Amino acid sequence: MQLRSLLSRIVLAVLGACLVLFIIGPLLRLLFFASPQSLGEALRDTELRDSIALTVFTATAATLIAALFGVPLAYLLARRNFRGRRLVQGLIELPVVVPHPVAGIALLLFLGRRSQVGGIFAEMGLEFVSHVPGIVAAMLFVSAPILVSGAREAFRGVDPQLERVARTLGDSAWGAFRRVTLPLAGRGVLAGSILAWSRSVSEFGSIVILTYNPKVASIYIFDRFTTFGLQAAVPATVILLLVALTVLIIVRVLQPQERQ
Amino acid sequence: MIRLENLHVRVGTFDLRDISLEVPKGGYALIIGPTGSGKTTLLEAVAGHAPLRAGRVFMHDDEVTHLPPERRGLGFVYQQYHLFPHLSVRDNIGYGIRRPGAGNRTANPAARVAELADMLAIEPLLDRPVRGLSGGEQQRVALARALAPKPSILLLDEPFAAVDPATRQVLRRELRELHEREGITTLQVTHDFDEALRLGDLVAVLSEGRIAQSGTPEQVFRYPNSAFVARFVGTGNVIAGTVQRVDAADGPGPFRARFTGGSLTLDVVAEREGSMHAVLRPEDIVLSLTHHAGSARNHMQGKVVRLERLGPVTLVHLDVGRPLIASLTTQSVDEMTLKPGVPVMVAFKATAILLV
User: Fold this and answer.
1) Is B98 on the interface with A (CB under 8 A)?
2) How far apart are CA B27 and CA B30, in angstroms?
3) Contact check, Cβ <8 Å, B78/A165
4) A110: which of A89, A176, B100, B140 lies 20 to 30 Å off by Cα?
């Protein structure tokens, strides 16, 4: 019996290890493929620096917009049992299952100058296709679900009875939210926002259709790869990977300890 | 003072209906009932957390039916305490009186926190996080937090359910003392009738969303108005059966009758005929080893099944063709050397039987 349990443990460990190795193997290979000199060179390349700055800026803008509209929605989904809640929840998660080029084409049709919505925005001086707002729109589309579901789970983790207690102690609904729910859910909401931000940074499929130029980092890498080959693409790739790793570490630190 | 007039609350498919109750100023009322009878929903409705479908709520002669919870001036202690996990004990207690900006109701919040901590003996805990407090400590903190803004009404939802029996006894006594000292009108929910007997001036028994009976704990205990209440408050033996008049006269008022329930036939004093329940208090049953002609009109042969010793009192579980419980002093149980299997004579008066 003990032998069997030992055996089953070994089998489980080996299976798990295979997958973990498959994930870290390529990343480690990538990290060691680039020489420190080539990284330094890449960082001096203004085109790469611009693309990283553009990526950070657009991803931040997309995350702020997603938070502005998404956090109240997340609270609503977590707390209120309204008609059509499941439908809204399903719709919000739709971008996760839509292939990203499909999202890009849909956005192109929706926000292009000749579309009604795009026309209205164009009159206001906001152009999407081949412009920076197009990048933000694509990022928003793919990352908003992550922010909303992260924030929703964070709000769900706060016992609604705590808000009721705060109400009987004299807080208005808003006061209870601000003094109890937000401090308790804040870390989770922030973690969801950072995940959404990093999802924006990594987006390629829809941006490539909506706004190839100016280039965000992922498109810059793709462009280097197709134009100059593997060697030319690697340094920028490594830099983007390091950014992603940093974000992951921050999220892990922020996530509530109880879940472990 | 709390006055509820014909409240109707619906939560999901559960209905709380026709709830009318008045707790006088400074009174201590208990709502008792089994799990799922709507006790907590009733408290939430009083606090303003559960929307009313009908009815009105008054506090101190003012109607508060449409006021939000924060404007009702009440304290609420939940069964699970619900202390704010991100705040220290001190900040939990001070939550209701240390509001940032305008609206501070207490002139010196720090002094009020210290006063309550002293009263409830939790001073050493003030700077601790709430995580890691024992059940009894959490209970005291929750109570201090609710009392800090000096509410005139206190709502308690099973406040002693999650603490050990020894702590429960201490807390009960403290709560009663606190109630007397601060004169707060209190409405407490419990499933434990013993608690109602010890604490309440007034008790309302809730069954499936309706008040089955209300009155002083003594009244409810001695004169339950239904088999449900009799069983729930533990009045004693409840036997289903039918009542048939036996005396010839048919004038108004009580009459002699025969109650038949299963294999039992009892002499009773009834006010109406038909099917009903006979309630017989354990302490009204007299046991003897030999047959002697007493004044009791009901006699039967029985057998001791089991003794349940509760300190000075012992419950004697009997078999008289159906189970029956008698309550004797432990001293007389020992004098009679009662033990399982011993045959006994069981007697009780016709007037000891309550028909509901």
Assistant:
1) no
2) 10
3) yes
4) A89
- Domain tally for chain B? 2
Same domain? B221 vs B259: no
Q: Tell whether the model's pLDDT for residue A152 goes beyond 70.
A: yes
Domains, chain A, ranges and CATH?
Answer: 41-259 (1.10.3720.10)
Tokens representing B268 are 């009773």
Is the model's pLDDT at B213 over the cut of 90? Answer: yes
Two tokens at A71? 């956090």
Q: Which of A166, A168, A180 sits opposite B47 (nearest CB)?
A: A168
| Surface-to-core class of residue B190, CB atoms within 10 Å of its CB (0-12 exposed, 13-18 middle, 19+ buried) | buried
Q: How far separated are the first and last CA of chain A, in Å rounded?
A: 29
The tokens for B94 are 């001070």
Same domain? For B72 and B111 the reply is: yes
Does position B103 have pLDDT exceeding 60, yes or no?
no
Does residue B3 come out as left (phi exceeding 0), alpha (psi in the -120 to 50 range) or beta?
A: beta
Domain that holds residue B16: 2-228
Question: pTM of this prediction?
Answer: 0.78
B349 touches chain A (CB under 8 A): no
- DSSP string spanning B13-43? TEEEEEEEEEE-TT-EEEEE--TTSSHHHHH
CB B141 within 8 A of CB B133: yes
Sign of CA dihedral B195, B199, B203, B208: negative
Whose CA is closest to A204, among A109, A126, A138, A255?
Answer: A138
* A167 with B49: Cβ contact below 8 A: yes
Is the predicted pLDDT of residue A259 greater than 50, yes or no?
Answer: no
Chain A residues touching residue B74 (CB < 8 angstroms) = 168
Only one residue has tokens 């809730």, namely: B206
